[in-house]
Design brief:
heterodimer; A: about 325 residues; alpha+beta; 5-stranded antiparallel sheet; 6 helices; 12 strands; about 15% helix; disordered N terminus; B: about 110 residues; mainly beta; two-stranded antiparallel sheet; 9 strands; elongated
Chain lengths: ~325, ~110
C-alpha cells in the first residue's frame, strides 16, 4: 500500500490542475466538465493519470484502460457501508491491477487516563498520568453482493489497518481478489470496532476502487465507437427533442425514400410483353430487337399435381431473367 | 485548403468532441488534432507518397490501360498515433482509455 497525501490533496490537486493548464488546456476542461464532483479524490486521481499519460505517454498501470469506481455509502447498524458496482467492466478488459483507496480519519487518541491522585486535592498531590492506550485498529472487510445466494454476503477479504499518525489517504492492492473472484458487486466496511460518533455522512473522502486493465478489443476497428458513440442524447420518451445546447436549427431536410406502391415481388415493372420467339433460339442479330430475355415463370405445381408430369400451365403474368446459350458463352468469356 | 499540394499528403483537421456530440461524457481532451489524408496517387508516384509495391503495380496497370476501370491507388493514413481519452461511463464513473489510431502521423498511397 502507499499513502496518498492528506485529504486536502483533492483541493490542492484540482487547483494545481486548473493552474497548470497545459497546451490544449485539457485538464482544466476536465475539471470544469466534472463540476462539483471534481472535488472528490477519485476524479482528481483520474485527472492526474490522464495528465501523466498525455504528457509522458506513460501507459497507466502498463495497460490501456483505467476504470474508477466510486462507492455508494449507506448506513447499516450505525456504521458506514460502502457499495461498489463494477458491472461496467467489459469482458474484453483483462485486469492487471486493482487498488482500494480510502481515507483514514486522524485517530481519536483515547483520553489520557489520570491516575487517582493521593491524597485527593492535596496541594502537592503527585498525579502520574498514565500513557494513552493504543489507538483502535481498523479492519477493512470486503463482502460479496452477488445475486448468487451461495456467495452472497461471503467475506471476500479482510485487512487489519494500523491507524496512521494523522488523517491521510491510503491504498491497498486488491488485485488478486479482483482478478480471482470476478465479483462485480462488492461492499466494503472500515470497522474500528468503536461506536461511530453520529451518523456517517457521504463525503468527497469516500473510498474508491481503481482497476487498471488491458482492453483486448481496443485495437479492433472502430473500438472508439463501442465505448464513446452513445445513445441519442435526447431520451426516446422526449415529446419535443430539445435542441442540443449549442446546435443551430438543422438546415438539412430529412427525406424518406419514396417507395412507389407496395413492393409485391421482385418482378421488373412494365415488362409484360411475351418473348418475340421461342426463348430457346440460339441465334440473334444485333439489328433485330433484343429478344426479351424473360421467360414466363412456371408456377411451382402443387404437391398433388406434381405427379402429372409435363402439365405446363403458363401464366403470362410474371417474368424471370433467362439468357440463351450464346449470351451465356459471351458472358463467360468476358 | 486551395494551396494544398495535389499529391497525397496529410491535411490539418482539428476534431472538437462537441461537434460530434460526445462532449457530454468526454471530459478530456475537448478537442484534438486528428488530421486526414487526401491527394492524388497518380503514375509516376513520387517517393514521398511511400507507395506499397502493390500500389506501384496498380498505378502502372492503370497508366498502361491494360485493364480498363482500374482506379488509382488510395491516399490513406500510414503511421497513426494513440489518444488518451478521459470520459464518464454509463454509471458516471471516470474512465481513462488509450485509443490507438486516433490521429494521422503520415499518409501513403495504398
Amino acid at each position: 500500500s502507499h499513502t496518498a497525501p492528506a485529504w486536502s490533496a483533492p483541493l490542492a490537486a484540482v487547483r494545481g490542475l486548473r493552474e497548470d493548464q497545459d497546451s490544449h488546456g485539457s485538464a482544466g476542461d476536465a475539471v470544469a466538465a466534472l463540476g462539483p464532483s471534481a472535488q472528490d479524490m477519485v476524479a482528481v486521481h483520474m485527472l492526474r493519470l490522464y495528465e501523466k499519460y498525455s504528457r509522458q505517454g506513460a501507459r497507466p498501470g502498463g495497460g490501456n484502460t483505467v476504470r474508477s469506481f466510486r462507492a455508494r455509502m449507506e448506513v447499516v447498524d450505525q456504521k458506514a457501508m460502502y457499495f461498489f458496482n463494477l458491472t461496467s467492466m467489459q469482458d474484453s478488459e483483462m485486469i492487471l491491477t486493482a487498488t482500494f483507496h480510502f481515507y483514514t480519519e486522524p485517530p481519536r487518541w483515547p483520553q489520557v487516563r489520570e491516575a487517582m491522585c493521593k491524597p485527593p486535592r492535596a496541594k502537592n498531590a503527585s498525579c502520574r498520568l498514565l500513557p494513552p492506550g493504543p489507538p483502535a485498529r481498523q479492519h477493512l472487510l470486503f463482502r460479496s453482493l452477488s445475486q448468487n445466494s451461495a456467495t452472497q454476503g461471503l467475506l471476500r477479504g479482510a485487512m487489519t489497518l494500523v491507524p496512521p499518525p494523522r488523517g491521510l489517504w491510503q491504498a491497498k492492492d486488491i488485485s488478486a481478489r479482483a482478478r480471482g473472484d470476478g465479483e462485480l458487486l462488492l461492499s466494503a466496511q472500515l470497522d474500528s470496532g468503536e461506536k461511530e460518533l453520529g451518523v456517517p455522512k457521504p463525503s468527497p473522502r469516500g473510498p474508491y476502487i481503481l482497476i487498471y486493465a488491458n482492453d483486448l478489443a481496443i485495437a479492433e476497428p472502430n473500438s472508439v465507437a463501442v465505448t464513446l458513440q452513445r445513445y441519442d442524447p435526447f431520451p426516446a420518451g422526449d415529446p419535443e427533442p430539445r435542441a442540443a445546447p449549442n446546435s443551430s436549427a438543422d438546415p438539412r431536410v430529412r427525406r424518406a425514400a419514396q417507395v412507389s406502391g407496395p413492393l409485391l415481388d421482385n418482378e421488373l415493372p412494365g415488362l409484360d410483353e411475351r418473348p418475340a420467339h421461342a426463348p430457346h433460339a440460339h441465334h440473334y442479330h444485333k439489328h433485330e430487337l433484343w429478344p426479351s430475355p424473360f421467360r414466363a415463370l412456371k408456377p411451382r405445381p402443387g404437391r398433388k399435381d406434381r405427379r402429372k408430369k409435363g402439365q405446363d400451365t403458363f401464366l403470362g403474368s410474371s417474368q424471370v431473367l433467362d439468357f440463351d446459350e450464346k449470351t451465356m458463352q459471351k458472358a463467360r468469356r468476358k | 485548403q486551395w494551396d494544398e499540394p495535389r499529391v497525397c499528403s496529410r491535411r490539418y483537421l482539428k476534431v472538437d468532441f462537441a461537434d460530434i456530440g460526445w462532449s457530454e461524457w468526454v471530459l478530456s481532451p475537448k478537442s484534438f488534432d486528428a488530421y486526414y489524408c487526401a491527394g492524388a496517387c497518380e503514375f509516376p508516384m513520387p517517393k514521398v507518397v511511400r507507395p506499397s509495391n502493390h500500389a506501384t503495380i496498380q498505378s502502372i496497370v492503370r497508366a498502361v490501360g491494360i485493364v480498363p476501370g482500374i482506379p488509382e491507388p488510395c491516399c490513406v493514413p500510414d503511421k497513426m498515433n494513440s489518444l488518451g481519452v478521459l470520459f464518464l461511463d454509463e454509471n458516471r464513473n471516470v474512465v481513462l482509455k488509450v485509443y490507438p489510431n486516433m490521429s494521422v502521423e503520415t499518409c501513403a498511397c495504398r
